[in-house]
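Module 6 notes. Inverse folding takes a fixed backbone as the condition and produces residue identities as the prediction. Think of it as a translation problem where the source language is geometry and the target language is the twenty amino acids. Below is one complete input and output pair. Work through it position by position during the lab.
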């Protein structure tokens, strides 16, 4: 409606397809910034403050030498600066939403508000906000299992504490009615016009294949194997039932994290489950775009508030990998200057200090070696033509390299979640 008032040609049916004028670019850029300021940034700020108060680990990020006791307000004032800088300066999100104009910030902003509500035990608000995020962009489905199991675990915990089964069931019923009512509100225009089947076909494009272009996930990495199997056993036709196979694979990999958050619905477990599950969906689900790495990235960024371990470095390395994995898209959109400017700034402020702080020299040199390889692959994509018989060789090398890094990050997150789960269980047994 606003676009029709500002520049009507931009929203004309059929005629607006492929339109790319300075007016449309300016409108989209301003609208992205408006969503950032009004929705995403406040969600990040309030969630950061809440996590600092509850977990307090960000204090160690900004000033590791300062260990004296502080009031909660002093902790928030001093320790949220660097975490906020890290989360708000993600090169991947800045490049995609401000140049590719995907408006991921709207869905992510609603999701972060939902996470904020859940951390404050406002489950109905959390259900409402997450349902809005899911209806705005179906990629928010990456977060659906953790939200479901966290809320289910909270209902179970409520029943145990009150020693009344009906209390937990009534809470679960209220959450379910909130979700159902929000869905009906969002889908009402399509239900009345009997267009819901067409909408579903567009939301779930099963006919479009396992992934879009080259993406740093499992199915793209094993594509040569899939092509061999297709030619050997299916006469070159697509392997049947790949949507079901990928769904089963995804649920199998995601189930352990969600069972842990169901048994122990703490804030830490919720963050771990959101991070690991969304990353599993990116790595193994059906029809993945390279841009959807933004959804795991934004929740993984909040793992810096989990005390103990090397999660701070994992978050920083993952942030670098997320932007790096989209380099072919950056080249396609001619965003190399913006990409290198943001990556150099991110490297100077976060990546290099993180690498230089590694005490083990072997691990430090291994990280530098991996960064060097990533630069070399980008150099090949930018300046060295691939062999004519293998036109996507360099791009495949980049996505496969990124996939290995993502898998290592996922394994580390799941390991840390299991460690945290065991600590919570032991503490409960002692109490």
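Target side of the pair, the amino acids:
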């Amino acid at each position: 409606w606003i676009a029709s008032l500002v520049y009507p040609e931009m929203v004309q049916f059929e005629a607006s397809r492929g339109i790319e004028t300075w007016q449309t670019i300016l409108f989209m850029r301003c609208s992205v910034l408006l969503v950032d300021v009004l929705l995403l940034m406040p969600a990040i700020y309030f969630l950061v403050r809440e996590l600092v108060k509850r977990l307090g680990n960000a204090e160690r990020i900004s000033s590791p030498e300062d260990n004296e006791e502080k009031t909660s307000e002093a902790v928030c004032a001093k320790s949220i600066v660097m975490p906020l800088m890290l989360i708000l300066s993600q090169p991947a999100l800045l490049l995609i939403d401000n140049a590719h104009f995907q408006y991921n910030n709207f869905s992510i902003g609603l999701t972060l508000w939902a996470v904020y509500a859940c951390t404050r035990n406002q489950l109905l608000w959390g259900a409402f906000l997450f349902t809005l995020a899911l209806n705005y962009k179906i990629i928010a489905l990456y977060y659906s299992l953790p939200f479901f199991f966290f809320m289910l675990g909270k209902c179970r915990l409520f029943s145990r504490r009150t020693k009344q089964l009906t209390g937990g069931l009534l809470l679960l019923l209220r959450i379910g009615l909130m979700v159902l009512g929000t869905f009906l509100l969002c889908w009402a225009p399509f239900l009345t016009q009997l267009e819901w089947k067409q909408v579903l076909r567009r939301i779930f494009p099963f006919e479009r294949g396992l992934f879009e272009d080259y993406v740093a996930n499992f199915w793209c990495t094993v594509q040569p194997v899939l092509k061999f199997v297709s030619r050997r056993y299916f006469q070159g036709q697509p392997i049947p039932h790949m949507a079901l196979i990928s769904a089963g694979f995804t649920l199998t990999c995601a189930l352990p994290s969600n069972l842990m958050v169901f048994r122990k619905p703490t804030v830490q477990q919720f963050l771990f489950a959101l991070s690991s599950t969304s990353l599993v969906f990116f790595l193994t689900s059906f029809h993945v775009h390279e841009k959807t790495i933004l959804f795991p990235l934004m929740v993984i960024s909040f793992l810096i508030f989990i005390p103990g371990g090397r999660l701070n470095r994992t978050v920083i390395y993952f942030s670098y990998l997320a932007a790096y994995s989209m380099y072919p898209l950056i080249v396609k959109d001619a965003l190399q200057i913006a990409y290198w400017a943001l990556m150099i700034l991110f490297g100077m402020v976060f990546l290099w200090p993180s690498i230089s702080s590694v005490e083990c020299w072997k691990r430090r040199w291994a990280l530098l070696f991996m960064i060097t390889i990533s630069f070399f692959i980008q150099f090949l994509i930018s300046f060295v033509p691939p062999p004519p018989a293998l036109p996507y060789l360099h791009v495949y090398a980049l996505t496969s390299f990124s996939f290995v890094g993502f898998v290592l990050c996922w394994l580390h997150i799941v390991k840390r979640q299991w460690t945290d789960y065991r600590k919570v269980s032991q503490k409960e047994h002692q109490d």
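Reference fact for the lab report: Residues 58-72 have pLDDT under 50 and may be disordered.
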